[in-house]
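Attaching the record inline, Q. Sequence:
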Amino acid sequence: MSDKTIAIPKQLLAKWPTILLAATYILVAAVGLYDYISWTSVNVIIGACAMPLLLEHTRKQQYSNRFFLFALALCLIGIVVPVKTALYLSLCCSLLYVYESSVGRLTLLPFTTLFLMSPICQYLAHIFSFPIRLWLTTIAATILNWAGLSTKVAGNIISFQQTEFSVDPACLGLNMLVTSLLCGVIIIGFYQKRMDVQLKMHWIFIALLMLVGLNIIANLMRILILVYFRIMPEHFLHDITGLISLSIYVLIPSMFLLKMLVRKKGKAFEQKHKTSSAFRQQYWPHAILILGIAITSWRISTKTDYEPSNKLPAILGYQSSWFDNDVLKLKSNNALIYVKALKGFVYTDHNPLICWTGSGYTFEQIEEQHWGELTLFTGVLMNGNDKLYTAWWYDNGITNTTEQWKWRWEMFCGSNAFAIINVTASSIGDLRSEVNAFNTVKSKVFHHK
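Structure, as predicted:
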């Protein structure tokens, strides 16, 4: 038997604190994030594959503690407002802090990638692309009319030669917005590595805005092609058209434009002496962050949903009940009304575009309308032969709006809590009358919220 022992590489031994700390952060946050990330989604897979490329630009940089402050601030936010997005971003900053304090300073591309991988980014793309979808529908119809092709627009529906085309979030082109941004980050990382330079964060932000603009152009061209050639969603060319439009109008131009941007605006890495690693000398910053993440994770895993503390409002003509812990259900002979309380300006709202779709319905003819002094969204819900008319808006009993930023800003400034009002009826006439009727009694609802 040989007396020789297995030699463990010194480089591996030198990195074990980094590996151990990273594993600790992930395990502590796992309780609160167990169902937050969809590991099989395209965006997560692309982002995970891109990380090794984006972690390359550290060899000539000094160590850094900047992500400690970011992670600490996010922990404090997560403790006060226990939302998974705050926990996820604090975990990301903590892992980047481990890397920067042991290996070297990073560019901001890894954090940008981790943010784009998050569900909140997909949610923001879904919600805030809604007015873009309506705008694209109008622009596409205008261009087709200029070309001598008679089209009509009803919300997100284009009617052409007795055929209706819907511009909705299920479209492949609109779903690829975040994916194209991730691809753009990868392209920037590739050229930075190749040219041995880095872009400042404001140039990265400009690059991402450029990609959003290219995506809008790609979707406009895609809509024009689909309508002109009457390619319906069930046809295999429908998705192929989206992929071709994405390649021609987004990916290929971005390769040339981003290469030019990196070449002209990229700065060479500064040659700086590496200071001693922060966590090799001090463990207390990591202890603070691990404690903060643990408390945030515990707060998220143990928080209870909104519990109504008041009795159900008694409103003449309506049967009231609690559909969910934070959703009031009002039922009349002609309509169904849901009043969903919004917990705070930082929370997602799960508006009808999400909730009804999850119930098997598809939206058609979505448009913003003005009914008297009330601004609201209207749409037609389809599920097989079932056809319903629905309307929704944000209201706090004093102010009503359809704008995400407006109700969030007012709640941030201390206004009364907002709720999503969703009225659904079997006809457009019933819908109008029920919306008007609800507005006359809504003070009773908000008095009890």
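Confidence is low (pLDDT under 50) at residues 1-13, 275-280. The chain has 16 helices and 13 strands.

More tomorrow.
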